[in-house]
Specification:
Distance between the termini: 30 Å
CATH class: Mainly Alpha
Helix content: over 70%
CATH superfamily: Ferritin, core subunit, four-helix bundle
Number of helices: 5
Number of domains: 1
Largest sheet: none
Bound molecules: hydroxy diiron-OXO moiety
Structural class: mainly alpha
CATH architecture: Up-down Bundle
Radius of gyration: 17 Å
Shape: elongated
CATH topology: Ferritin
Length: 173
């Protein structure tokens, strides 16, 4: 059984994961419109993945006797200065999600909700993987030269191949 506090906090996280999905959708669309199909494919895959994160929480809340609430649709940033700016903002958002998950885990611990604590460990591991993945992408962009056209071409190819190699949702993590 969820305490009211935990139920409210889990629903807030549902909203954050839904927003993350929209964020990736917007980033993917920006890449699509800039002739970067590999990056777009990679990011569309992540939009699906974040929706899966949202739904996993959603079902958990109801399965644990709470009431999962369909979240608000908040509009994410629609434009980015360049590809580096896009991946930096995606990375920063992932770091914010990690903080939110850690706070949620702390709350479950304080409320002695071991079931939710246990459930959230999946998200702790997931955030570790996602931060690692996006840090690597940023390092590659830096290495190839963020403004270099040939560098962009290679990044696009690389991310396109990552998304086809990544399985169901199109990316690792
Ligand atoms: Fe990476 O945001 Fe979901 O958990």
């Amino acid at each position: 059984m969820l305490t009211k506090k935990v139920e409210t906090a889990l629903n807030k996280q549902v909203e954050m994961e839904g927003y993350a999905s929209n964020y990736y959708l917007s980033a993917a669309s920006w890449c699509d419109s800039k002739g970067l199909p590999g990056c777009a494919q990679f990011l569309y895959g992540h939009a699906d993945e974040e929706r899966m994160h949202m739904m996993k929480l959603f079902h958990y809340i109801n399965d644990a006797g709470g009431h999962a609430l369909a979240p608000n649709v908040k509009q994410p940033p629609l434009k980015f200065k360049n590809l580096k700016d896009l991946f930096q903002s995606v990375f920063d958002h992932e770091v914010a999600v990690t903080t939110a998950i850690n706070n949620l885990v702390d709350l479950c611990m304080n409320e002695k909700d071991h079931s939710s604590y246990n459930f959230l460990q999946w998200y702790v591991a997931e955030q570790h993987e996602e931060e690692k993945l996006f840090r690597t992408v940023l390092e590659k962009i830096e290495l190839l030269g963020p403004e270099d056209k040939r560098g962009l071409y290679w990044i696009d190819r690389e991310l396109g191949s990552l998304s086809t190699a990544g399985g169901e949702s199109g990316a690792q993590g």
